[in-house]
């Protein structure tokens, strides 16, 4: 029976390498724990119980720890996420007369923009990109820039 647990453990190890999600690794460890158990007892229910208990305890206790430890928290934002926090220049005022939509130039590209808090922002003002909603930038005026009154 130990040979079966060895094959199962190796299969889970190969699957974990292919999947790399810190999920199947625990079943691999459980299979090897059952392999060791099979050297001491020939009882299949005990071996299966060891496999299930070890696998699920490790799955519940260590998966989150490993995934957060090896996640890329400091990864560089790519594509659209890289725009958040950048500064842009308002080309077309964002006012109620334009339905709250204006245009902002950012890195040489012109984007439609709305404000985060329904304020009006004059043409030429510097804005900070807070988020992206669909194809529109959501902006707030830069602190030292003048902007019009709040509209509801």
TrEMBL record:
A Gene Ontology cellular-component term: plasma membrane
Subcellular localization(s) per the UniProt record: Membrane
Transmembrane helix listed as a keyword: yes
Membrane topology per record: Multi-pass membrane protein
Main location: membrane
InterPro entries, per the entry: Membrane_assoc_protease, NA-bd_OB-fold, NfeD-like_C
Pfam family, one: NfeD
Superkingdom of origin: Bacteria
Keywords: Membrane, Transmembrane, Transmembrane helix
Residue ranges constituting the NfeD-like C-terminal domain according to the UniProt record: 81-141
Segments traversing the membrane: 43-63
PANTHER family from the UniProt entry: INNER MEMBRANE PROTEIN YBBJ
Descriptive protein name: NfeD family protein
UniProt organism field: Zhenhengia yiwuensis
